[in-house]
């Protein structure tokens, strides 16, 4: 808030929706960027499990 960046996505620098901020006041990413990050984490988790099975 002090830096004037509250409500701005740290990834794409677009505004985070008011609805998202009401639900998650600490959100750092807009829903689009958060969804992309979640998908990347899921893919990484699958890759890790595959490596462990080998």
Provide keyphrases for this structure.
single chain, Four Helix Bundle (Hemerythrin (Met), subunit A), 2 helices, 54% helix, elongated
Give structural notes.
The protein is mainly α and 54 residues long. It has one domain (1-54): Four Helix Bundle (Hemerythrin (Met), subunit A). The protein has helices at 18-23, 31-53. The mean pLDDT is 89.
Short summary of the structure?
This protein is mainly alpha-helical and 54 residues long. The chain has helices at 18-23, 31-53.
Per DSSP E runs of 2 or more residues, the count of β-strands stands at 0
How far is the N terminus from the C terminus?
47 Å
Percent helix: 40-55%
Instruction: State the order of secondary-structure elements, H for helix, E for strand.
Output: HH
The chain-level mean pLDDT equals 89
Can you count the helices? Answer: 2
The poorly predicted ranges are: none
- CATH domain fold name: Four Helix Bundle (Hemerythrin (Met), subunit A)
Q: Which word captures the global form?
A: elongated
Largest sheet: none
CATH class: Mainly Alpha
| Main structural class | mainly alpha
CATH superfamily: DksA, coiled-coil domain
Q: What Rg do the Cα atoms give?
A: 15 Å
Range of strand content: under 5%
